[in-house]
Request: fold
Amino acid sequence: MDAQDLRKLLEKAEDKFNIFVNKKILGSYKFDEFEFFDLIKDFLTDEEIIRLYEYPQFKGFEYELINVISNQKLKIQMIIKFEDRLENYQVVNLFKQLDDEGKKEILYNKEFIEKRQFEDCRMEDMISSLSNHTRENLLADKNLMKGILQFTDKQIVDLTKDLSSEESKNKIMELYQFSDFYNTDILVTFSYESKLQILLNKKKSKTYDKIRILSTFNVKELIKIINENKNIFTENNIKPYEIIQSLDIEAQKFFVTKLENINLTLNEKRKVLAYLGEETKKKIDITNFKEEYKTAISIEKDRLGNYIIVDFNRNLEDYRGFDENIKIYPYKLNEVQKTKLLQLCEICPNLEIIYVFRKGAEFISTGKEYKEAEEWIATLLNSLKPKYTEAQKLAIIDNAIGKKISYSPDFETEISNSEDCRNIWKIISSGYGVCNGIARVEQYILSKIGIESEVISGKNHAFLKIKNIELPLANGEIVKGNTIVDPTWNLANHRFGAAPDNFCKSYQEIRKNDINKKGDDSFSHKNDEELQDATLNLDDNSLTQLFKSVGLTHENGKFPITDICMKSQLLDILYENQPYQNIEKHLNLLSKVCPEFAICQNSSMRILSDILLNKKYIKFKKCVAKRVYDRKDKQKRPVLYVYIDLGEKGKKFYYADKEEAQFKELPQEEFVKKFECYKKDLEKEKGIRPWKIEEQEKENIDLTTSSSTIVAQEGEEK
Reply:
C-alpha cells in the first residue's frame, strides 16, 4: 500500500494520531519522508505534532516536524527547544517561514544567536528575507547588528545596498559612518541623478571613489556626463579612457561611433581608442578614421591593460601625449632601443622609467630625469681619453660624482623620500642621494666602461668594492686586485677639490677612517667576509700622482682645496680683530668658490665646520652649520644656516638664499620666526634647538689630507 492508501485510511479514522505512532500499521505502507510529513501536516494539529517528539521513532526528525507546524509561536518554541539538534541551514529554512515579527524574535534572542554561530552568508540570508521596512529598522539598531549579530561593516553595507529607498540608505550610512570605500559601495546603487550630484559635489567623495561611481553608468549616460559635466573629470584628474575601458564591447563600439560629437580633446580621444579592448578594436572599421585615430587604435597595451607597450620600431611621435601611460624598464632594452628611448623621453618627458633596486623594489624616474642623467653620464664618459687607464677613469668618475651630487640634505627628516635618494637617475638629475644610491650611481657608470664593482654594506653604510683593477704606485710599480672606493664619503672632498681619502683603499686602511679621535668605531665599512680580499691600497703619494695625471690637481700636485685654505688664512690675518667681518668674508668666500653652495647643503656644512669657520682667530663660544626649513614652505625643503655665538659680542644668524646664491643675515628673533628645525633633528637633541645648546665641540681638520669628518655622524647612514 502507498501514501494514497494511507491518506484514505486517515480520512476515515477517528484517532488519526494513533495511526501515526503505530509502527505495525505504518509498517505495511510504502512512501517517502516528504509524503509522510505532508500527511502529518494535513491530519494532525500543531499540538499533536509536538506530541510526536515523545516517540522514539521520530527522534532525528525534529526539523521535519518543526517544518510542518503552522502556529508561529509554537514553531519558534520548537526551534529554540531543539536548537542543538538542528543544522544551521535547517534553522535558516525554518526562519524564512516566519513573519517579520517572528524573525525579529529569533534575531533578538542573544543566547540563541551566540549558540548557533551562524556563518556570515547564512546570517545575511536571514536578514535579507525580511521586508524592506523591517530590514531598515533592524539595520538602524546598532546594538542588534554590531552587538548581538556581530555583523561587520561589509555585511551591513551589503544589506544596505538592497534597501529600496535612497533615503533609507543615507540614514544607514550616516548612522554607521562607514569608510569612503564602503560608502561608495552603497552610493553606486543610487539613481543616475543622485550619483551625478555626488560627483558634482567636490567634498562628497575622493577621486578613486568617483571613478568607481562613474564606472557604473551606461555608455549613453557617460557621454551625457562628458558633454555636460566634463569638470567632473578635469577637476578630479580622472581620465575618460579609464572609464571607457571598463565598458563591454558593444558599449565601447557605440562610444567610438559618437566620438566626434563627444566633448574630448584630440589626445583624450586617442587615449580612449588606445585603451579599447582588443576584441573591440578587431570589430571597429577604421577605414574612414583620421590618421591620428588609426595610429592610436594600433597602440598595444600590456596584459593587464594598465600601460601601453612601446614599439621602438614605429614612429615614436605616435606616443606623444601618452606620458602617463608609458612604463619602461631600461635594463630590458638593447643598445639601439636605449638610444631611441632618449628620443622618446624628449617626446614624453613625464613617462615612467623604472629603476629596480635591491630585493625587487621599483623606483620611478620621469623621462626628463632619465634623459638628463644619461646625457650627463654620456658627457662624462666622452671626456675620458682612450689612453686613460682604468684607474684614471675611476678617479675622474668618482670626482665627477662628487662635483655633481651632494648627500641628501633632508635625509632622516619627516620629508625624506627613501626612494628618490636611492634612484640612480633621480640622484643624478636632482643632485641628491644617500650612500646606497650614490654607490649604485658609480657602479652603473663604471659598468658602462667595463670596470667591475660590487655594492658592499657595512653598518648603516654602502660603498663599492672595485674588482680586478690595476693601480699605479708612485714608485712605478703596478699592482692588480680588489680595492675599496667610498663615493659618498668622498663627495665633499671632490666638491671642494680635496684629496679623497676613501679612494682605492684596502680594507685594513679604510677601516681606520671608521674610528674618530675619541676611539669610537662606527663600523661603517666593517664586512670581514666580503672585503677580506680588498687588499690594494693607494698611499697618499700614489693617489696624488694619479689625480695629477688627469688634471685634478694643480701642476705642482697640490689639490685645489689649498687655494681655499690660503684665502681663508689671509682673511684671518686681515680681520683678526674683527670677528663679524671675518665670518661674513668667509661666508662670501664659500659663495665664490662654490656658487651652488646653497643647494649642496651637506658638502657646504662640512667645509664650513671643518675649515672656513673652524678658526682660532674667530673666538666664538659656539658655531653651528646645519639645516632648517622655512615655515612658509609647505614642502619643508632644507635650508642651510649658520649660527655663531660670540659670547659677549652677541649672536649671528645667517641663512643660504638659494635664489640669490648668497648668505643673508637675520636677527635672532626674525630667524626663529622664519625658520624651524625638523622634528627628527629636535628629537636627537631632546627638543632643544641648536642655538640653545650650550656645549660646543671644535676640531681642526685639514681637508687636504683628511675627509673623515665630511660624513654623517655616528649612527646615521653615511
Notes: Residues 514 and 520 are 8 Å apart (CA to CA). Residues 696-718 have pLDDT under 50 and may be disordered. Residues 367-382 form the longest helix (16 residues).
